[in-house]
Structure formats: C-alpha cells, structure tokens
Amino acid sequence: MQESSDFVIRQCAGMADLDKLFAMLKKANGNDIVIQVFDRSAVISRMHLIGAYLDAVQAFRDGTNIANDIAMEMLLFASMDRQISKAIENLGAKPEKDFVLFANSTTAYSKVKKLIKKEEDFAPSAEEQVRSAERYGIMQKEDLDKFVLQRMAIARIED
User: Fold this and answer.
1) Contact 18, 95 (CB under 8 A)
2) Three-state secondary structure along 24-54?
3) pLDDT in tens, 14-39
4) Which residue(s) pair with 101 in the sheet?
C-alpha cells in the first residue's frame, strides 16, 4: 500500500485552456500512473482525495468499478456520486478557477508539472473544509475526514 507521503496534492492557479492539461492527463494516466484534477472549492481536504484514490484502486481490484480508468473512478468516489456527468459537473476542474491536482507519485506529477504555472501545497483552512463539506451535505465540523470517508463509502452502495 502506498504511503500518503507518496502522493502529490497541489493547489494550482486556474488555466484558461484546460483542454491541453486534460489531453496530457489522458496520455499520462495508465499503468501505475494516476493524475486527476478537481475544482478547488469542491475538495474538502487532502484525505478526501487520498480516500477517493484508495477507494478507486480497491474498486478496480474488486471488479466493482464504474469507470474505465482509475482517475475517473477516483473522481466518482470524490464526488460521492455514481454518475460520471454529475461528478465532472460538481467536482471537475473549471477553466480559470483554481484547481487541485492529485498525482499518485512524484513520477506521475513530473509528467504534467511543465503545464502548471503557479502552484502551492493544498492545505485548506478548517473554515474552507467545512464550507466544501457542506456541498456534499456534510454538516460536521469535528472529525470531518472521518465523515468524508464514510460518505464516500455510503454513496457507492446507495442507489
């Protein structure tokens, strides 16, 4: 199992032309490389993305995946929805808005780093985490990561 320190989770400045980044992601993803981007305002915490990634990997191992690749499966878990179109609408990166880039390794991250102009560690404040969690109907303020992980698991088994 990967250590959480292996993951690269960066907040990046909005890009007017996300299509170039998406094309690069499509080429880079595969084998053991997973890179995904998310709307900054919809990501609750680092654990939100790490949990979604680990759930996606497990779904592929179990054969319960909905999407055809781990990056898209991760987006489904992170969005707490079973429909790809809704996941993209609610959590996908948007042009000219800050986004969060997740890569499962520094090797994966190096494949897209040249397209990222401005970046910093993703470290949302407690207030930002609560505000983002409310988008998913999570109203807790304490033990937020625990509730996020529970909500992702429940969303997968609900119809």
Assistant:
1) yes
2) HHHHHCECCECEEEEEHHHCCCHHHHHHHHH
3) 887 888 888 888 888 887 899 999 99
4) 10, 37
Tokens of 63: 């054969």
Non-local (6+) Cβ contacts of 48 within 8 A are 78, 145, 148
How confident is the model over 111-138, as pLDDT tens digits? Answer: 888 888 899 999 999 999 999 999 999 9
Structure tokens at 76: 């489904």
What secondary structure does DSSP assign to 44-113, as a single string?
A: --HHHHHHHHHHHHHHHHHT--SSSSHHHHHHHHHHT-S-HHHHHHHHB--TTS-EEEEESSHHHHHTTG
Q: Tokens representing 118?
A: 């401005």
- Residue 75 and residue 38: Cα distance in Å, rounded? 8
Strand pairing class (119-121; 8-12) = antiparallel
